[in-house]
């Protein structure tokens, strides 16, 4: 494995899986351009699939029934032979190797969670979780301790002595995940792992998988037919149709730049609020006032932008607060030159990684377009309410929000106040000179 390959946990190149007569001849015909449905006596389940799975990512393979996704995942751990192409795990091939070596690869590098749990009904929950360790020859005391630790990790503390039949479907799937984690492999394959669960339990399991992934940093290949699930879980997504991978990309790539009409139709009904983030839709912050600027500068900045308030930032672009045009006028009338005494706290700022679903309440409560900050607290963008709504579906692309706090003070009033302040300052200077 070369130095450039160290970030890749699993690689597939030119994969074909053909069932039926003369599969290798069928592969050659497919390569020559023969349509899938014209292969007499043969069925092509996977056609020329190539992809890489990076270490620590959740790579989702998504497609409708019959698209080839379940066949593909079974090829990744040797449950299905490869008709053509190569698969490497940590740089080592898994096709065409002796059965003993393939079993060792499964024990050490690749474990799997099945749709219908595949638990051993006569063994307790703890014994099911410990089973991979038993296959590795780990002693009983160590197996039991590890099983107890992992059951607590997946929220099943105290259930180790129960039989699988005594658990709900969601709890049984937690046992399946715990068993895969107990194997302590580099790669976790999950074939429609949550599709048999009720919607609420399914979402709970998705949340827990993400939480576990953040803690353990496993490499996960997740199969699903549910686009919302794919968008929620996947760091990257491979979309399959009729045995072929038609697009690979991030959830945002799939949603905003579908590769063809098939993918575009697929994503029409996706819950965008759970996929797009603040960083995807934010705009350049405007207006913004420097913390060291005076009230005159602040007032003119707001006037030029037709806004009645503005965010104030320090030299490092960190949010210092917000100021309104009326407060700036008060400072001018009092002859003050600093903003600090009258700054208002920012009601709420959001992270650029927050999904749109979590932004509605803060957006309604914020008198200014919602402030978006990075990990260091620097202001990197704003989201007007109209932009937030437009991002959720087709509609006007307006990108500005004018109504903030109160209507902006008319320019004529601002000019009059500035003129009065200038006159007062000049009078004060003349008086000082006379003295």
Automatic annotation (TrEMBL):
Coiled coil: none annotated. Keywords: Amino-acid transport, ATP-binding, CBS domain, Nucleotide-binding, Transport. Residues 282-339 form the CBS domain. Residues 10-267 form the ABC transporter domain. The keyword 4Fe-4S does not apply. The keyword S-adenosyl-L-methionine does not apply. PROSITE patterns: ABC_TRANSPORTER_1, ABC_TRANSPORTER_2, CBS. GO terms for molecular function: ATP binding; ATP hydrolysis activity. InterPro entries: AAA+_ATPase, ABC_osmolyte_uptake_ATP-bind, ABC_transporter-like_ATP-bd, ABC_transporter-like_CS, CBS_dom, CBS_dom_sf, Gly-betaine_transp_ATP-bd, P-loop_NTPase. One of its GO terms (cellular component) is membrane. It comes from the Bacteria. NCBIfam families: proV. Belongs to the ABC transporter superfamily. This is Glycine/betaine ABC transporter ATP-binding protein. It comes from Microbacterium barkeri.
